[in-house]
């Protein structure tokens, strides 16, 4: 009876990690995933054995990796934020992993990034380079794979940004016209991991995973738009660099509230400096050639779901911003105009104290929900809270002031679109 080889995948429900898990399973490995959210893990790969662990926190590394033939490190983060610390994830965690693997027969396949350098202008590349250096200085049986921009059926991070930009209607936003981009298929990255895990690649190999050609960023977006089946843009709009910087600054601030936007400063700088790699070291190591972007897209079917995602991805921040603005403004107006608001109730027989209590409590709830949706971890719960409070307002208002349903300004009727928008936000905010 053949004993299955055992693989442990760190960051297993991420874009690359999940693809590696599926490819390893198909190749006959017994796979265990590691991720920090048990709920997300079960949703992405429900049949996989999981270990719930946060690599940024102290772990029993020896116990975690014991008994595995190969460890795949597909964990990573783009930028420091509420949920992420680059030094801890890219360097400290890898150092701890290396320390327990040294002297063992376990192979470590590490997913880095093309173009990493300790002299890079972004901490993402610098921290990745420091992590790679830890591996290179060790006695571990390691392979470092460095993909360029990963394109696959799943959309997350950079590949989601590409789809969203390609899906913008009517006007083509021309951004970073001088940036050069090379791509690699998610399928090719997963295949390279399997080839390395099976022993088909020599230990110590460090190689980019990339197509041989590159193209400018607007051309890449146009190729994606044509693949999605959208009509050509009727106009072009050059987006000034200062606007892009402003977007990046805003996304950075939101990062400290837990939002992992691919429009943060790090991602913009990486794109501006180009995402390219050299396929030759991978070929010399015996790796299979990676598909070009047209070949990648030819293997993928552009469905209505793809087109809907491209359009709705842009609507996610718009929906959150509108809900936050509406509920925060409602709360502030409630506090500022509490006497006027209370008069609506006192004119219908309520005592002043009761009316004022209703107004102030309602204003506080509105303000709290508007602020809560800006915090990523609470955003979906805030949407549910908005729906519940809106229904409560309608129910209580119908009992206490039913005449407002006929008010020409429609204060009750206008609550209904808000409920629909909050429900839409709840759905859009499903992260993976």
Automatic annotation (TrEMBL):
Which stretches are transmembrane? 242-259, 308-329, 349-374, 381-400, 412-429
InterPro entries from the xrefs? ComplexI_NDUFA9_subunit (IPR051207), DoxX-like (IPR025695), NAD(P)-bd_dom (IPR016040), NAD(P)-bd_dom_sf (IPR036291)
What are this entry's molecular-function GO terms? protein-containing complex binding
Record flagged with keyword Membrane: yes
Tell me which species this is from.
Pseudooceanicola atlanticus
Q: What name does the UniProt record give this protein?
A: NAD(P)-binding domain-containing protein
Where does the NAD(P)-binding domain lie? 11-154
What is an example of a Pfam family matching this protein?
A: DoxX_3
Query: What keywords sit in the KW lines?
Result: Membrane, Signal, Transmembrane, Transmembrane helix
**Zinc-finger keyword on record:** no
Signal peptide extent:
1-26
């Amino acid at each position: 009876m053949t004993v299955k080889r055992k693989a442990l995948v760190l960051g297993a429900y991420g874009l690359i990690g999940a693809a590696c898990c599926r490819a390893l399973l198909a190749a006959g490995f017994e796979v265990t995933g590691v991720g920090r959210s048990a709920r997300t893990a079960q949703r992405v790969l429900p049949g996989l054995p999981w270990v719930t662990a946060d690599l940024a926190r102290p772990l029993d590394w020896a116990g975690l990796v014991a008994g595995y033939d190969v460890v795949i490190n597909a964990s990573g983060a783009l930028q420091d934020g509420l949920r992420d610390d680059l030094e801890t994830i890219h360097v400290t965690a890898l150092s701890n992993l290396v320390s327990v693997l040294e002297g063992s027969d376990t192979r470590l396949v590490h997913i880095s990034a093309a173009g990493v350098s300790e002299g890079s202008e972004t901490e993402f590349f610098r921290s990745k380079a420091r992590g790679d250096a830890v591996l290179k200085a060790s006695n571990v049986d390691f392979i470092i794979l460095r993909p360029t921009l990963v394109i696959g059926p799943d959309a997350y991070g950079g590949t989601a940004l590409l789809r969203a930009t390609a899906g913008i209607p009517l006007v083509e936003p021309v951004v970073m016209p001088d940036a050069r981009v090379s791509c690699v298929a998610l399928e090719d990255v997963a295949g390279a991991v399997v080839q390395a895990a099976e022993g088909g690649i020599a230990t110590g190999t460090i190689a980019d995973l990339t197509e041989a050609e590159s193209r400018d960023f607007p051309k890449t977006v146009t190729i994606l738009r044509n693949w999605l089946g959208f009509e050509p843009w009727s106009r072009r709009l050059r987006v000034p660099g200062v606007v892009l910087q402003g977007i990046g600054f805003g996304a950075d601030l939101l990062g400290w509230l837990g939002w992992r936007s691919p429009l943060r400063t790090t991602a913009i700088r990486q794109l501006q400096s180009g995402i390219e790699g050299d396929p030759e070291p991978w070929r010399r190591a015996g790796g299979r050639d990676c598909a070009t972007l047209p070949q990648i897209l030819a293997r993928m079917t552009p469905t209505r779901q793809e087109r809907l995602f491209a359009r709705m991805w842009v609507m996610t921040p718009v929906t959150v911003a509108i809900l936050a603005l509406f509920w925060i403004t409602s709360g502030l107006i409630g506090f500022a105009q509490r006497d006027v608001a209370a008069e609506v109730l006192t004119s219908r027989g309520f005592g002043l104290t009761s009316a004022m209590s209703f107004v102030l409590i309602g204003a506080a709830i509105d303000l709290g929900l508007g602020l809560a949706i800006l915090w990523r971890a609470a955003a979906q719960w805030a949407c549910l809270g908005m729906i519940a409070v809106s229904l409560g307002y309608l129910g209580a208002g119908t009992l206490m002031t039913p005449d407002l349903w006929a008010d020409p300004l429609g204060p009750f009727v206008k609550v209904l679109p808000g409920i629909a928008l909050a429900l839409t936000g709840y759905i859009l905010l499903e992260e993976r």
